[in-house]
Design brief:
The structure holds 2 protein chains of 2 kinds. Chain A is built from 10 helices and no strands. Chain A folds into 2 domains: 2-138 and 260-285, no CATH class; 144-252, no CATH class. Chain A is an all-alpha fold. Chain A is elongated. Among the domains of chain B are: 25-87, no CATH class; 277-603, no CATH class; 622-663, no CATH class. Chain B contains 32 helices and 11 strands. Chain B has a 3-stranded antiparallel β-sheet with strand order 3-9-8. A two-stranded antiparallel ribbon of chain B has the order 1-2. Chain B is elongated. Chain B starts with a helix and ends in a 20-residue tail after the last helix. At the A-B interface, helix 1, helix 2, helix 3, helix 4 and helix 10 of A face helix 1, helix 2, helix 5, helix 7 and helix 8 of B.
């Protein structure tokens, strides 16, 4: 099973590498093409500009097809890959079109900002999809809307476990170590804030497990010093903490997965308007030289 | 999760569209907001500069109105929309050349003419067709051929791409860009750049200067003969790079050549022949034959052996009649007319009167009017300064003096001819101020009346009654002559008496206009009592005093009847009675006019003599090699091996097909270098020359037929005194990691230059 997963993972990585190499190669080819175009006494901004416009049209077609529901799921999957692939190539075309420099005028800044926002949001979405896939995702039974309730339940469960006292000391009136107080102290110091809030956004964004490990280490460090019953408590708390961390991760990713499109799509609409004007103005001032 | 998201957004075909989501509504609102914002921008922005794709270059930075350059796009906020409709694609480039002036070939590749481009391409193909093209060049040619660009004309923006920032170099052009159009493509200068072909000798030098013979022969001889003379010891004695740094100019004549060659120009060293150029003459005629045949030529010196000068030929040949006349006498030996038939005698007679008419016109009129309609210089009327140069500001007294000595009866003869119709106006031309006389030729059917007039005049002269009145009629009172030509008034003496005297206001210059005494002298030149005296101190001329013979006018003249028959001059006019031992030619040793042997000579005044220069300049274009036209005769006379002034001893003559001949007087200048694809600036190279200096590149080649190459007219057929410069020599420095080797180091695109002239600014007025 693991071997199959490793093979699948290895296949995915090699596919990604191939895709990356293709993007790099095509981008390099594009730069070279633009260079020889410019060297042949033509304005290279026309070549990379038209390539950029055609690419953006292709991306826009994907969006329109999605909105119109004309794509079958399988076809949509393929188009999504093309969408991402073309998106990376458009970054190269855009860099070439802007002549590897920042804009100078207000209108150019608007175009630049629009393209950069659309591109970055797209890259974020791609990253999210990739990182989810890399971590084998989130429990599909969990919906974004139920996460706060489930977090509250977990917090209550941990609290209940912590406040439950051990009846044994009353039978034997001998002095014993205050295991419950230690667990209470652990809860108050490290666990309560974690369980009651939405923690570690940045860590989840980059897939870091360090905050979770710090908490579990605290629990594990206490475990050898408590009796067997308390150890069972700590074990239950540990499981609930891990569950809370998973919910936090799911909440971050599900929020981002919804949120990036709120940037990607509306800014694309605005960018389309700006690009259309840019093309018209460019044509209007070019005296037919393009 | 991604899959979930996707499946959520993709619905099967045919299913109804889901209600618009918040995200879609937001997208639509943002799109509309963008449109609204842009619309507001267009309406409230003060100009359309916010649409600029980048700042203008520094040179154009002050231009605020987009329509200044984008001619078809206008200046209004939305006027650029006009550019969306196909219009004149050349409009923007045309706007460029409103400030940056270029020739008509501005939009040709290199701004050169099609012929030049074709020749250049053919030459390149000949010398470098097999040059291997680099891979990138081949790919470029295959993917983006440039044939169309050059065929439909190269727009300015093809190379000069604006809106790339204030510091962008608009004139920057990469080697690859240059290469893209060229049929011969190579990688770099130190790579496969074609070898130089006879560089830098595109054409021979304008000045013929045999370095080898001067270095090896003349300088040592001069140094030996006259050690005090300054002999050049370095190249920089004569050559220097001027401020423009491109032209290795030669120092002025006075600093370099004058010490040895000035006397050749002024004629001091001339051993034989006249030292001056015969400008006007009275050609020698076979007077006996003319008298025998009763040719009515009036008075004429019978001792003249002068030739008809080419300058006179051009004056006579200024109209069809004159050209026909010259043609008819062209093959005649004027000094032996014994075999001439009546028609030829008549032609000679007409020639004589034409010559007299010229003298008469030069005395009564202005030089500018005599020379103004010569038809030289493409028919355009020469300017005042050119006329001054063409006549070397010849004083009228020179002509008057000649007339008094050679044709003392000219005034009477011309006054009695009915064909002289004066139309006069007061004009000032240079230093020669007089009145204008326009002559009209006489037709044969008017001859009887003219003969009558001539007889009347002769009668007057014999009786001495009306000489003054005739002179007045001829010279002093042109206004009346204009209104009443001599032919219409045979009794002109009475008419002249009735006329009022000339008003002072009618005289343009009292000092230079003939005095009444002069006029009387002109009009009554042959008073019986006046003893002859040696004219103008010229003993040679005095020795050739015309034969004192006078023939009675015959009743009928067989050849021409408009004047008295051939009448050798009775006696010379008394002009000067002071004897001088100085020959007129030597008297004018520093140049100027002198009279000798029935000719008026001009002796060159020195280097850059305007008289010779202007005649060469004027006649050259009409004087292709071998031309027998009057212009060609003058040009040949002034440029032959022994010509006075010796201009073409040093200044080469180019024989240009369909453009005649040109004497290269202009020194080397940037103007001369227009049209060249290669430029070399000497100055930066001075610092790297070692002991050999100029000889590092310019090796003296003694054995080449340098002078021989100037014996023909093609300036491109040339054998220099110096060896050619090879590419290898340049490549010692211009190579990778050393000196620049990009195309624009040595080549320039706009071969005919681009200038930005001063704008036309009206002088402010109140």
């Amino acid at each position: 099973m693991r071997a199959a997963a490793r093979r699948a993972s290895a296949g995915s990585i090699s596919g990604k590498a191939l895709q990356g190499l293709s993007i790099a190669a095509i981008s390099g080819g594009l730069f070279w093409l633009v260079w020889i175009y410019g060297s042949s006494l033509r304005d290279p901004r026309y070549l990379d500009g038209w390539l950029l416009a055609i690419g953006m049209g292709l991306q826009l077609y994907f969006h329109i097809a999605i909105k119109r529901g004309t794509l079958q799921p399988k076809s949509a999957q393929r188009w999504r890959k093309i969408h991402i692939f073309v998106g990376y190539l458009l970054v190269a075309a855009f860099i070439s079109h802007s002549d590897f420099s920042l804009p100078d005028t207000g209108f150019e800044w608007a175009l630049w900002a629009g393209f950069v926002l659309v591109t970055l949001s797209g890259i974020l979405g791609t990253y999210l999809a990739w990182s989810l896939k890399a971590r084998h995702g989130i429990d599909e039974r969990v919906s974004f809307e139920r996460i706060p309730d489930r977090c509250a339940e977990l917090a209550q469960e941990v609290h209940d476990i912590v406040v439950e006292t051990d009846p044994a000391p009353t039978l034997f009136a001998l002095p014993a170590p205050p295991h419950d107080a230690w667990i209470m102290d652990l809860y108050a110091t490290h666990l309560r804030d974690f369980l009651e809030g939405h923690s570690n956004f940045a860590s989840h964004l980059i897939g870091s497990k360090r905050p979770l490990k710090r908490l579990t280490d605290e629990i594990d460090n206490l475990s050898p010093y408590v009796d067997e019953q308390s150890q069972e408590k700590l074990s239950a708390i540990r499981a609930l903490v891990i569950e809370k961390d998973r919910l936090d991760f799911a909440r971050v990713y599900l929020a981002l997965s919804k949120g990036w499109l709120f940037v990607h799509v509306p800014v694309t609409y605005s960018l389309v308007v700006l690009v259309l004007l840019h093309i018209l103005v460019m044509f209007g001032y070019s005296a037919g030289l393009w | 999760m991604w899959r979930l998201l996707l499946t959520r957004s993709v619905r099967p075909p045919g299913t109804p569209a889901p209600p618009t989501s918040l995200r879609d509504r937001l997208a639509m609102q943002l799109g509309i907001a963008t449109v609204v914002c842009l619309t507001l921008f267009f309406f409230f922005a003060k100009d359309t500069q916010f649409l600029m794709p980048g700042p203008l270059s520094s040179a154009h930075g002050a231009i605020e109105d987009c329509g200044t350059c984008h001619a078809s796009s206008g200046s209004g906020p939305l006027s650029w929309a006009h550019g969306l409709i196909a219009g004149d694609r050349r409009a923007d480039s045309t706007a460029c050349i409103t400030c940056h002036k270029m020739p008509n070939t501005a939009f040709n590749a290199h701004g050169a003419s099609t012929d030049v481009l074709k020749q250049s391409t053919e030459r390149l193909m000949r010398i470098a067709a097999k040059t291997p093209a680099p891979l990138s060049a081949r790919a470029q040619s295959a993917a983006f051929p440039t044939d169309g660009i050059t065929e439909r004309g190269v727009d300015c923006a093809t190379c000069h791409q604006e809106h790339k920032g204030a510091n962008f170099d608009l004139s920057k052009l990469s080697n690859e860009q240059c290469r893209s159009c060229h049929v011969v493509k190579f990688d770099s200068f130190d790579g496969d750049h074609p070898k130089f072909e006879n560089y830098p000798f595109k054409r021979r030098t304008g000045v013929i200067y045999d370095h080898a013979s001067h270095f090896g022969k003349h300088f040592p001889e001069v140094a030996k003969k006259d050690p005090a003379k300054r002999i050049p010891d370095t190249c920089s004695t004569c050559h220097n790079s001027r401020e423009d740094k491109r032209v290795m100019a030669v120092a002025p004549f006075e600093q370099t050549c004058a010490s040895c060659h000035l006397d050749q120009i002024t004629g001091k060293e001339r051993a034989s022949g006249p030292k001056g150029i015969a400008f006007l003459s009275l050609p020698g005629l076979d007077m006996k034959t003319l008298e025998k045949k009763r040719a009515a030529i009036g008075e004429w010196p019978d001792s003249s052996e002068a030739e008809l000068t080419p300058f006179m030929k051009i004056m006579i040949g200024r109209n069809d009649r004159g050209r026909a006349l010259l043609k008819s006498v062209d093959r005649l030996n004027l000094q032996d007319l014994s075999r001439a038939n009546d028609a030829q005698i008549k032609a000679v007679t007409n020639l004589v009167w034409e010559i007299k008419r010229i003298y008469y016109a030069l005395i009564t009129g202005k030089a500018s009017d005599v020379l103004g309609d010569l038809g030289v210089g493409g028919g355009a009327r020469p300017s005042a300064s050119l006329v001054a140069d063409l006549t070397a500001s010849m004083p009228r007294d020179v002509v008057i003096g000649a007339q008094q000595q050679w044709l003392p009866d000219l005034g009477r003869e011309m006054a009695n001819r009915k064909d002289v119709k004066d139309t006069r106006e007061v004009v000032q031309s240079g230093g020669w101020i007089t009145t204008v006389a326009e002559t009209r030729s006489v037709d044969d059917d008017e001859a009887p009346a003219a003969a009558e007039t001539a007889r009347s005049a002769r009668s007057d002269r014999q009786t001495g009654e009306s000489a003054a009145s005739a002179a007045k009629h001829a010279v002093a009172e042109p206004e009346v002559a204009k209104a009443e030509p001599a032919s219409a008034k045979p009794d002109n003496s009475k008419a002249a008496d009735a006329r009022p005297p000339p008003k002072a206001a009618d005289q343009t210059d009292d000092l230079l206009s003939p005095t009444p005494e002069e006029l009387r002298a002109m009009a009554t030149p042959v008073k019986e009592a006046s003893p002859p005296s040696p004219p103008l101190g010229n003993r040679t001329a005095s020795a050739e005093t015309p034969v004192k013979a006078s023939a009675s006018p015959p009743a009928e003249t067989p050849a021409s009847s408009d004047a008295a028959p051939a009448r050798p001059q009775a006696r010379p006019a008394p002009v000067i009675s002071i004897e001088s031992s100085v020959d007129p030619e030597n008297w004018a040793e520093y140049g100027g006019w002198y009279r000798q042997d029935y000719a008026i000579f001009y002796r060159p005044a020195g280097h850059k003599d305007k008289f010779i220069y202007s005649w060469l300049f004027l006649t050259g274009p009409q004087a292709p090699k071998g031309s027998k036209s009057p212009a060609g005769t003058i040009f040949d006379a002034l440029t032959h091996k022994d010509a006075q002034g010796s201009c073409t001893k040093c200044h080469s003559v180019d024989d240009i097909p369909r453009k005649g001949r040109v004497v290269n007087f202009s020194p080397a200048s940037l103007e001369n270098k227009k049209g060249r694809f290669t430029q070399f600036i000497h100055e930066p190279h001075f610092g790297i020359l070692e002991k050999r200096g100029c000889a590092s590149c310019h090796e003296l080649a003694k054995d080449r037929p340098y002078l021989k190459s100037y014996e023909q007219g093609n300036p491109k057929s040339f054998a220099s005194n110096f060896g050619v410069v090879n590419k290898d020599l340049c490549q010692t420095c211009h190579t990778s990691n050393m000196a620049r080797q990009d195309c624009l180091t040595c080549h320039k695109y706009h071969v005919n230059d681009v200038i930005t002239p001063i704008m036309s600014t009206k002088i402010p007025t109140e």
